[in-house]
Amino acid sequence: MQNIWSFTRRYLWVTAMFSLLFGACERSVDDLDAPGFPSNPDVFIDGFSGGLNYAAFGGSVPTAFDVDEDITYNNSAASMRFIVPNFGDPNGAYAGGAYFTGVPRDLSGYDALTFWAKASQTASIDIIGFGNDLGQSTYQASISGLQLNTGWNKYIIPLPDASKLTAERGMLFYSEGPEDGKGYTFWIDEVKFEKLGTLSHQNPAILNGENVVVAAENEETIQITGLISTHSLPTGLNLSVNVTHNYFTFTSSNTNVATVNASGVVTVLGAGTAVITAKLGNIDAAGSLTINSVGESVKPAAPAPTPTQPADKVISMYSNAYNNVPIDTWNTRWLYSTAEESFITIAGDDVIRYRNLNFVGIEFTSQKINATNMTHFHLDIWTPDATNPPNNFKVLLIDFGPNNTFGGGDDTQHELTFTAPVLTSQNWVSLDIPLSNFSGLTNRANLAQLVLSGTIPNLFLDNVYFYNNSAPPQVPTTAAPTPTHSPADVLSIFSNAYTNVAGTDFNPNWGQATVVTQEPIQGNNTLKYTGLNYQGIQLGSNQNVSDYAFLHLDFWTANSSQLNVFLISPGPIETAYALPVPTSGWVSMDIPLSAFAPVDLTNVFQFKFDGNGTIYLDNLYFRK
Amino acid sequence: MQSICKLTFIQAATAFLLTALLFSGCKPDDFQKLEPRNWQLVWSDEFDGEEGAAPDPAKWAYDIGRGGDGWGNQELQYYTNRPQNVSLDGNGNLRITARRESFAGAAFTSARIKTQGLFEQTYGRFEARVKTPYGPGLWPAIWMLGSNIETVSWPQCGEIDIMELRGQKPNIINGSVHGPGYSGGNAISKAYGLPNGRFDTDFYTFAVEWFPDRIDFFVNDYLYQRIEPADLTGEWVFNSPFFLIFNVAVGGNYVGFPTEETPFPQTMTIDYVRVYQEAN
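The joint structure predicted for all components is written out below.
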């Protein structure tokens, strides 16, 4: 016995190295008639049973399994020992592998795989079962979360349908990772197939026994999952075995609506209702999938209107017309939300599609949106559903407030409700919502969530963005920037910040049409030229500015298309300098005095502006 | 039923449980040489009726509530007479169903029916065809109490348990007698097990044949226990009328407590109950 085992052990390490290739090299037994394969029930009693091989799974620690001759069940000669690695073990992340035979076995006379097991600590084996042959694993069946403790206990894995197992090669397989990051050891012994006779009350189920109802449309495919077979153990407890679809036969109540293939894949073909059910052997499985198909899907024929707002006045969340800010998710899947999202294209335009929409959370907490300078929120929506009253569509914006996190008492939000005639069915509806309408949304510097809800379960959504369409202001709302240059370096003509040259005439009569006034803006005196054609400034005395480097001035205009400033010395010698107009807000310029050559900088006495529009001026001074 | 299966007198006085495990069903053998009896049916209920109907009120009364201290056993259920706990199934069976539901302060409901005040008998054959519930903490029972329990109290009144089962071992039943000096955990009792079957998957016939000097216990007419006065550690109190009780208890001293994994609801299905007296 010992010699045989030693040979086997050497062999199996080699096998483990090529485990992934092994299945592909084996001849498939699926198509063969059962020619009366041996019915040997033993898997591992005091060593490997005849013809049994081991292969470690990819990514597992290859040496996790070994034969233990010291710790055995009932003082038998040997047991199977499994050393589960610690988290981060460089040899592999888990212990896992399959025990399989070269020649299939006929297990149809048994009703359970049984074994004794213990562990170095209480633990839960992730997966253990049979039917994994490293190939098709047609009749794989397994237990999830098998509870072990430090004493030997007998475990039973019921065969879901022994009549299928006339040519089975997968005798045992397992997969177990660390418990709370820590490795440990467990032992298994006396592994064999048995006819217990004390298993009963088999209850197979699909979809974990739930009766699931889904809305669907043509060409959709749905995989039936949650395939289990529950058995009453001899202890009176129920145990659920996870099984493959090959144990089941699936049926559709209406194959004009939906068909289901042997793999449990449902394909929707037409409008109406079909119920998918299954049997395991002759037993009806609990659970069903009811498909309510609308048939051909109803979608927008054309994309949403292309946005026209200039990109520099837009913060876009979803649009092909703009660069979009990052959005964490278009479906937070909050509790009780039934919404399902998908991303489709309509004539090349990306569109978000929601189905079963009762409400959907859209989150952008990672990078919140500051819409303080925006005036409107825009969405394009399209629905095939009825929009007549009382149907509605609701838009909720949520701002996390200055603390920039959810809660904390500073969050604000507001929800707006839209109904017909704004809402229409099967048309793109562009909602341009003034942000002021969200009256409860007192902050919008930390917008983090958008929630869409209402009574239109099918929604197509595009061009979600904030924008600013306010007309440019005609007067400055803020004062010119306060100068920061040292008074010692400044020769000021017009500024509240410095002492100005005395006696300067800001409206000498040179025959101009310009109306000159001085207006306080935020308490700061500002020079205003209304209807500029040209306008002079006569200094109170001639100035030598040759020690200065720049002429500084602040100017603001919403409507000027041409503006020049002139520095003048007697002669007169004057040179124009063009200022960029119009401005968006105050513009501060420092013009090198050399730009005014050949003006005599030792003896300047006038300024002149020409051009058009209404101009605000401030902080006109020479500086070093 | 009785004529098909000629019971013969038992010769082996002591049959060990493990021996008994190997034999079940109506197969007379060396251990089953029973004397022929001429049983005459005197009282029965075949439980025919509409689905959801209560059992015949002329034959059955109810114990309602939690009893004193869980019917003396720390049982967890509240007994009701609601159809969801006790009713006919429309196919000739009575269902007693234990449910996990909060009811009047209890975590489970179930039912306990009895013939007290309606039918009682001294001696004879008492049999029921039953499929049991299962699962840890389930405790179905077919049993009898002495009708004088109101005057002499338990255990002086005597108790004959035709069938009791612990749901965590659904392949083993017990037959027992209780009386003064041999009650509760000291009852005179024997187990009968199925080596490769369970009492919750098929109907089995459980019976006692009660004579002035012995009580024989049967599963599918296999005699697995005989109790005579000499076997008792106290007085033989089985010479007065007894009435029948069917119930499904949840939890309690005998069975232990149900676990989170115990499947509910759990039903004891009774095909019939028949009581015979021997014709002279």
